[in-house]
Write a structure and sequence with these properties.
This protein has about 190 residues and is mostly beta strands. It has one domain: Porin (Beta Barrel). Helices cover about 15% and strands about 60% of the residues. The protein has one helix and eleven strands. Strands 1-3-4-7-8-9-10-11 form an eight-stranded antiparallel barrel. β3 and β4 form a beta hairpin. The N and C termini lie far apart (about 45 Å). The relative contact order is 0.19.
Length: about 190
């Protein structure tokens, strides 16, 4: 199941890249409009308030329970091209919890306020929609896990280089457990 999901996500990302290259080739021959701005790279720093959903969670009695845990995200992104950015997104779950590893062993592990930074690539598909993908790790005092992160954002620009956005991301933690994070954030663009 996990391999099928990864194959679908990889195929979707490749389709976005290919369609971007086709659009870029079509637009090469078109003259620039007089009122069109020249591209300038910018950085952005954002904060996200969200809930991390852990479906393999355990309650105090050890029974299976889906958990919704408060989280904070700190995002730094650098825009390389009009449609491409790279950066570091760090999610912090601000509660301790227990979760069952999804290897079928039934092993329950404890997580103490895990911090999960990931190096991310972001593709701006339209004026409002962004697709993200990357890799990183989740760190907690009990154990550390490698992760892949996939996400989608809907962003709206505000005056003075501010932006508000909603985000949905999926962290696939290898040999551990998975989380979905649903959040709302605000970011400030700065730079040239």
């Amino acid at each position: 199941m996990k391999n099928n999901c990864l194959q679908l996500i990889t195929a979707f990302i490749l389709m976005l890249i290919i369609s971007n290259d086709i659009n870029a080739q079509e637009k090469k021959g078109t003259p620039k409009r007089e009122n069109e701005k020249k591209f300038e790279s910018k950085s952005s720093l954002g904060i996200v308030l969200g809930h991390a959903h852990v479906f393999q969670g355990r309650d105090e009695l050890g029974k299976k329970k889906s958990l919704a845990l408060p989280s904070i995200g700190i995002d730094y992104m650098y825009q390389l091209k009009p449609q491409w950015s790279i950066g570091l997104q760090t999610d912090i779950i601000i509660e301790n919890f227990k979760v069952e590893k999804h290897l079928g062993s039934g092993e329950v592990i404890e997580r103490s306020k895990p911090i999960a930074p990931a190096f991310m690539g972001m593709y701006k598909a339209s004026e409002h929609w962004n697709f993200l993908f990357g890799a990183g790790a989740e760190f907690a005092k009990e154990d550390n896990f490698f992760l892949n992160r996939f996400g989608v954002e809907y962003a709206a620009e505000l005056p003075n280089e501010w932006e508000v956005f909603g985000t949905l991301s999926y962290d696939l933690k290898w040999k551990a457990y998975d989380t979905w994070v649903l959040g709302i954030g605000i970011a400030k663009k700065f730079g040239k």
